[in-house]
């Protein structure tokens, strides 16, 4: 299980990632909504062990070691991080990505047979920018899962390629609920689909709000009765 408790990443002025908590189990799809692309990417990087949070705790199967989280996870299609370059052909992308698979699995992974076995021969000659949103997602997730050590997929804004949830939600559900290889799947999206009733979280859900201070309350009271203003506040007012 993936567990994040009050993860926070500091920015230059405001938080790059405000405090956020969530849990994702194997065999489960968790959707996390957030307004800004920078926040969504920061969360995806943190959950996959690619960015160290400034505060908070992250664990995978009760281990807080970043190395273990990273080894078990893949971050998919993060803008400005690892999204495929548009000028690449599908064939070239497959060749590049398979070369990154750990060496002990790499021997049998050649692009031509991989494309055939995984039924991507029909798009092998296309540029990445030509792919429909659903086929793009199928390709990128299949490439990630070529590494049998992965149990956690973290997807950065799959909804940015299509406003139609049918282009990405069914694929993620299929991956999460596959009985043969149940995965923990986390998709960080701009907004939850209207029909979604599964596990969900919101970026910034652990932000604490400070209660009104006694000074503020006293200032309000002073408008009614100046004599009740504390001495410290009176000095400040002068």
Query: Widest sheet: strand order?
Result: 5-6-7-3-8
Tally of DSSP helical segments: 9
Q: Spell out the helices and strands N to C.
A: EEEHEHEHHHHEHEEHH
On the 0 to 100 scale, the average pLDDT is 87
Main sheet specs: 5 strands, parallel
User: Cα distance, first to last residue?
Assistant: 57 Å
Q: Could you name the ranges where pLDDT drops below 50 across 5 or more consecutive residues?
A: 213-238
Q: What is the structural class?
A: alpha/beta
Q: Give the overall silhouette.
A: globular
Beta content comes to 15-25%
Could you tell me the radius of gyration in angstroms? Answer: 23 Å
Total beta strands: 8
**Helical coverage, percent range:** 25-40%
Brief rundown of the structure:
With 238 residues, this protein is α/β, with parallel strands linked by helices.
Question: Can you offer a commentary on this structure?
Answer:
The longest helix is centred in the middle third of the chain and has 12 residues, at 133-144. Helix 3 (90-98) packs across helix 5 (111-117). This protein has 238 residues and is of the alpha/beta class. The chain is built from nine helices and eight strands. The chain is globular.
Descriptive keywords:
globular; five-stranded parallel beta sheet; alpha/beta; disordered C terminus; three-stranded antiparallel beta sheet; 238 residues; 32% helix; 8 strands
How are the SSEs ordered, and which strands pair?
Elements: E1 2-9, E2 17-24, E3 28-33, H1 37-47, E4 55-60, H2 66-72, E5 73-76, H3 90-98, H4 103-106, H5 111-117, H6 133-144, E6 152-156, H7 169-176, E7 184-189, E8 200-202, H8 214-224, H9 231-237
Parallel strand pairs: 3-7, 3-8, 5-6, 6-7
Antiparallel strand pairs: 1-2, 1-4
